[in-house]
Write a structure and sequence with these properties.
Blueprint (H helix, E strand, L loop, with lengths): L3 H13 L18 E5 L2 E4 L4 E4 L14 H11 L10 H13 L5 E5 L2 H16 L3 E5 L44 E4 L4 H10 L4 E6 L15 H11 L3 E5 L11 H5 L6 E4 L10 E5 L1 H4 L18 H14 L3 H24 L4 E5 L2 E5 L8 H4 L4 H13 L2 E2 L8 E2 L6 H14 L2
Parallel strand pairs: 3-13, 5-6, 5-7, 7-8, 8-9
Antiparallel strand pairs: 1-2, 2-3, 4-10, 9-10, 11-12, 12-14
Helix pairs in contact: 2-9, 3-9, 5-6, 10-13, 12-13
The structure holds pyridoxal-5'-phosphate (PLP).
Length: 429
């Protein structure tokens, strides 16, 4: 493939942008892809190449690129002249919609990104309980704020015992003592979680968990695990936060909490909420959320919170996905990919599995039962990178992080799925 324009632009970008990209996850060797436009399930790069998109805006794209309903709503809102820093009837409508769709959402408040929603949620639970500590899951990503940017993908050889991991930051630049307020536990171990909650109940404000750990690929909760967390937190007067930045609106209209029928105290949403427009939300119990009102004690700020074009895009997205049909099809399509992929690797004698839900999936190059970060990290990193590189060369845009969730959206057709599977088969290492 001739990538001369991409190379040229990347060199230009690198002169003024560190690494040439504005979010480091977008970097790829030897250079990131640079796109000109997107339409439905397709992306078109600056060298005129067409790709079937399997990154889907890191999970934010649920309907497809340039979905007409969302684009029209955003365009119309632009005409009003309102941008950010104001309240409008539209924002109230969106808050009411979230209240009617999401089980835990007695009250909601908007922000801009997933990181912000989580940071706000953590301040809210700390303000409400008067306690500082947060329990998080190893292998989970809850944005890049200080408390939670710990043990996302630590080197397992340095991370100590799985049941009480050493705390390791993902990045420099975070004060070393910030992690004193974080307790890290493995996913899917209800006993360990219950003990951590019980032993620290006087210091812990909340436990935060992605209902499905897509940030280590696609790790499903074991039967009863989320319910166990619900009961253990309730019993010990600790709050439960579901980070639904990926699962929200995707597994079901009401997110993971509807799909798994477990209602947390608070939840955070972003990504699929507006089909890629930047808006996020904290939602939860009225008594807890009320601390974020003026005079409630917890500061809640943000000029861009509830930016009007994004609010309009969110309402149009919810119109399109509220009846659950899109989610039903995405869940079915993911099952189809998983089943067909299993046949392919069985036939080819390759140790690999495709796990996923709601259109998000991960190919693990191991036969290990994937239940937590440590088992997921057994996936063969070199094989995974070769596989994704081969897919990219074959016109399937995927991200090559070995524990990364790739995905599909409502615009992918059955024909697209079969084509992706065909290319996956040819790309196996
Ligand atoms: C579960 C989860 N929480 C929080 C975030 C942070 O969201 P953002 O990148 O919008 O800050 C992400 C982003 O990938 C996420 O997957």
């Amino acid at each position: 493939m001739d990538k001369s324009r991409t190379r040229e632009l990347f060199e230009r970008a690198s002169r003024v942008v560190p690494g040439g990209i504005h979010s480091n996850i977008r970097y790829m060797q030897p250079f990131p892809y640079i796109f000109e436009r997107g339409r439905g399930a397709r992306l078109f790069d600056v060298d005129g190449e067409e790709y079937i998109d399997c990154v889907v805006n890191y999970g934010a794209l649920i309907l497809g690129h340039g979905d007409r309903r969302v684009t029209e709503a955003a365009k119309q809102q632009l005409e009003s002249g309102l941008t950010c820093g104001v309240e409008s009837e539209l924002s109230i409508k969106l808050a009411e919609r979230l209240n009617s769709i999401i089980p835990c959402a007695e009250m909601v408040k908007f922000s801009l990104s997933g990181t912000e929603a989580v940071a706000h949620a953590l301040n809210i639970v700390r303000g409400y309980t008067g306690r500082d500590k947060i329990i998080k899951i190893e292998g989970g990503y809850n944005g890049w704020s200080d408390t939670v940017i710990v043990n996302v993908h630590p080197d397992p050889s340095k991370a100590g015992p799985a049941s009480s991991p050493n705390k390791i930051y993902e990045t420099k630049g975070v004060p070393e003592n910030a992690k004193e307020n974080t307790i890290v536990i493995p996913f899917n171990d209800g006993e360990v979680a219950e003990k951590a909650i019980r032993d620290n109940k006087d210091k812990v404000a909340a436990l935060i968990v992605e209902p499905v750990v897509f940030n280590s690929g696609a790790i499903m909760p074991k039967e009863g695990y989320l319910q166990h967390l619900r009961e253990a937190t309730e019993k010990n007067d600790v709050l439960l936060i579901f980070d639904e930045v990926i699962t929200g609106f995707r597994l079901a209209p009401g997110g993971g909490q509807e799909y798994f029928d477990v209602t947390p105290d608070l939840a955070t949403f972003a990504k699929a909420m507006a089909n890629g427009f930047p808006i996020s939300a904290v939602a939860g119990r009225r008594d807890i959320m009320k601390v974020s009102a003026p005079g409630g004690g917890v500061m809640y700020g943000g000029v861009y919170n509830g930016s009007q074009v994004c609010v309009a895009a969110a309402l149009a997205t919810l119109d399109a996905i509220e009846d659950g049909e899109v989610q039903r099809r995405l869940n079915e399509s993911t099952q189809y990919l998983s089943k067909r992929f299993a046949e392919i690797v069985e036939d080819r004698g390759v140790e690999a599995q495709l796990l996923g839900l709601g259109g998000q999936f991960c190919v693990y190059f191991t036969d290990e039962d994937i239940v937590d970060y440590r088992s997921a990290a057994k996936s063969d990193r070199a094989k995974s990178q070769r596989f994704h590189r081969n897919l990219l060369d074959r016109g399937i845009y995927t991200y090559d992080g070995y524990l990364f969730h790739n995905g599909i959206c409502a615009a992918h057709t059955m024909q697209d799925l079969d084509y992706i599977l065909q290319q996956m088969s040819k790309s196996l290492p």
